[in-house]
Amino acid sequence: MGTGRRICVAMTGSSGAIYGLRLVDELRRQGAVVELVVSEPARRVLHYEEGFEFPEGELRVQDLFADPKGIVLHDPKAVEAAPSSGSAGIEAVVVCPCSMGTLGRIAHGYSIGLIERAADVALKEGRTLLLVPRETPLNLIHLENMYKVAKAGAILLPASPGFYNRPKTLQDLVDFVVGKILDRLGFDAKEFSHWETPEREAGQNGLKKDSGEEGV
Ligand SMILES: Cc1cc2nc3c(=O)[nH]c(=O)nc-3n(C[C@H](O)[C@H](O)[C@H](O)COP(=O)(O)O)c2cc1C
């Protein structure tokens, strides 16, 4: 399903680095080549949220993944790198997680670095651009920027896990969102957020049993 496909994943300085890491890992597991870009602030978030300790200087794939297979890491300042070009054969760009700063720059065509440029290229070439914001609450500027990018053709896929699958672990919550992204990209997402109507068991959440409610 994913063999030979080239997907650009950009991780920015929003909370939710775990979503980006899981997405990259799964895309390359399914045979895709991931063109990965990690913004400078994303490195800080990876440190605070995931405990990564990065050596001075340029980031290496091995600093993030034990097995570098299937991942091509680009410097976020390298505007000459493949994701910058419409003819490089990259079929989709996913900004995951997407900070409000990066969203704003994409919304205004402010292609100051590789991430914004890759997003800009996806839009101009009519390719898939998926933005995964985590921010809450949202101010009017965020909402206007979301409206603007959506109008230009981007897909906004907020990191908002559902609870109808009855998640039990943090991994379940992460996989719900990553499954939505995989699905949107046409990758196999069966193991991620597949919905099957469960047998309804009342009383699990402390609410009154036999309330007579139907559905979810
Ligand atoms: C631990 C941590 C969590 C953050 N979470 C968010 C967030 O959820 N959303 C956001 O827009 N910015 C968040 N920020 C702030 C961004 O990192 C900051 O605005 C940065 O300039 C974004 O840069 P970038 O878009 O180039 O990656 C966070 C910063 C840190 C250190």
What does this entry look like structurally?
It is globular and about 60 Å long. 40% of the residues are buried. It has helices spanning 17-29, 40-50, 61-64, 100-107, 114-124, 140-152, 170-185, 190-193; strands at 6-11, 33-38, 71-74, 92-98, 128-133, 155-156. With 216 residues, the protein is α/β, with parallel strands linked by helices. β5, α6 and β6 (155-156) form a beta-alpha-beta unit. It has a single domain, classed as Rossmann fold. α1 crosses α7 and α4 packs across α6 (140-152). The longest helix has 16 residues, at 170-185. Bound molecules: flavin mononucleotide (FMN). The site of flavin mononucleotide (FMN) has 16 residues, from α2 and α4.
Summarize the structure.
The protein is of the alpha/beta class. The protein contains 8 helices and 6 strands, in the order E-H-E-H-H-E-E-H-H-E-H-E-H-H.
Tally of separate domains: 1
> What summary fits the major beta sheet?
6 strands, parallel
Write the CATH fold name. Answer: Rossmann fold
Helix content: 25-40%
Low-confidence stretches: 211-216
What is the radius of gyration? 18 Å
Ends distance:
32 Å
Q: What is the strand content?
A: 5-15%
Give the strand order, joined by hyphens, for the main sheet.
3-2-1-4-5-6
The kinds of small molecule bound in this structure are: flavin mononucleotide
Please identify which CATH superfamily we are dealing with.
Flavin prenyltransferase-like
Return the structural class.
Answer: alpha/beta
Summarize the helix and strand pattern as letters: EHEHHEEHHEHEHH
